[in-house]
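Page 47, continued from p. 46.
Same chain as before, 186 aa.
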Amino acid sequence: MLTHRFDDALQFAARSHRDQWRKATRIPYISHLLGVCSLVLDHGGDEDQAIAALLHDAVEDQGGDAMLATISDRFGARVAAIVLACSDSTDQTTEPWKVRKDRYLAGIAEKDDDAVLVTACDKLHNATAILNDLETDGPAVFDRFTAGRDGTLWYYRGLAEALCARLPGPLTDRLATTVTRIEAAA
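Result:
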């Protein structure tokens, strides 16, 4: 059952990401957050996990540690812990992309179950968007990403392998299949 907390989180996410777009598109960023939330609920997630899905990028994109404190105050420690576990950094300016991604991949094995579900749904939604854009726009889609084609393929293959090992089942099987399709089309 979803309560007023979910409603509040939905409004908070919409306000926090109002001026943000998906990478190099005119798709409002909230579409990603709603998609991840939908996947979480479809795969048995509870209200806290659904709220964390709506807020999973807020720390990285909208204020770092200060945003994390706000999330904790408004939505509770469990939601904040999931959001933090889904973030590769609270400060995107201090470390190179590869360092953050290596650490994120290595940390999947240690994430708690709450965060693994949200992470798997986030990465599936992202991979599906990449595949759709690749089929529509061709290899130029990789120009949107910091690491380009090779780095993006490396990262998503690593995500699929780590998440399949940590959470075997239909959700991560779908992620692995989507990544294989991306690799074939790239």
